Amino acid sequence: MLVLTDMLKKHSTLVVCRKVVLMNYIDLHVHSNASDGTLSPTEVVELAASLSLSAIALTDHDTLSGIEEAQAAALVVSSSANPLRVIPGAEISVAYNNRDVHVLGLFLDTENSLLKEALHTALLKRDERNEKMTANLRSAGIDITVEKLKASEGEAVLTRAHFAKYMVEHRYTKTTKEAFDKYLNDSSPYYVPRDYLSPEKAISLIHQAGGLAVLAHPLLYKYNLEQLDEMIALFAEYGLDGIEAIYSMNTGFDEGIVRRFAGRYNLVITGGSDFHGNNKPDIALGSGKGNLQIPEALLEPLENRLKTRPL
């Protein structure tokens, strides 16, 4: 039997018919403290390098602000033997059937003026929503303001994860789950819906910025299979390119279900951990809940889709 010693951490090793097959791994759904992660873009890149990932996509919520820093950090940590690629991305919230659905933009031109303007507008609308939500929470006896959130979070895009973190730190709730269950979920009397982009507009903006539009974590929206099929079919009509089939929260046959939708609508497959640092402490970069493996080989069909998609 073949014995392997001192293999590079960079590779997972499979032994098939006495031949060694080396596989690199990637993570195409990653957050930094430019939105609701807890690590800076530089720290995310340094962690990815320490885990020997060959590529990550930085996909902060409705912002491109961390990408330049992440790509600069990648130049520092990369070497010819262990290169690390940072793919510019964003996770864009859209409205579908009165729900918040997320579309990942990958391979984005971060200088595209149309996308930058749309994301800036989305952030302004997010700020308006946050002001209303903090007012609602103050009526419930919680001493919270947008200014207090920003004082601890800096220039990050404020999301409900920051609200939950604040409530735990100030002992209004014991856990972030309790914060969401009592105050922050969309059925709570304190919740305020956002004014979202339409799916068609978001996909169009991603394409105009030279990127691929990918439906993030499709099974998290809690639709039945018929409803999910309707949503994916509609998004595909708008030009959806891919779907996140490999994901931290998958169980059982989840990946297979999503892959069947990908085949039905000619969508490329992506995968990501949805890493947020300590805001989702059970999800690790690259490996999710411990067994996530996203092969680098997924990049080739994604890049082919970019080359062949009509302009």
UniProtKB/TrEMBL annotation:
<dbReference type="InterPro" id="IPR004013">
    <property type="entry name" value="PHP_dom"/>
</dbReference>
<dbReference type="GO" id="GO:0004534">
    <property type="term" value="F:5'-3' RNA exonuclease activity"/>
</dbReference>
<feature type="domain" description="Polymerase/histidinol phosphatase N-terminal">
    <location>
        <begin position="26"/>
        <end position="96"/>
    </location>
</feature>
<protein>
    <recommendedName>
        <fullName>Polymerase/histidinol phosphatase N-terminal domain-containing protein</fullName>
    </recommendedName>
</protein>
<dbReference type="InterPro" id="IPR003141">
    <property type="entry name" value="Pol/His_phosphatase_N"/>
</dbReference>
<dbReference type="InterPro" id="IPR016195">
    <property type="entry name" value="Pol/histidinol_Pase-like"/>
</dbReference>
<dbReference type="InterPro" id="IPR052018">
    <property type="entry name" value="PHP_domain"/>
</dbReference>
<dbReference type="Pfam" id="PF02811">
    <property type="entry name" value="PHP"/>
</dbReference>
<dbReference type="GO" id="GO:0035312">
    <property type="term" value="F:5'-3' DNA exonuclease activity"/>
</dbReference>
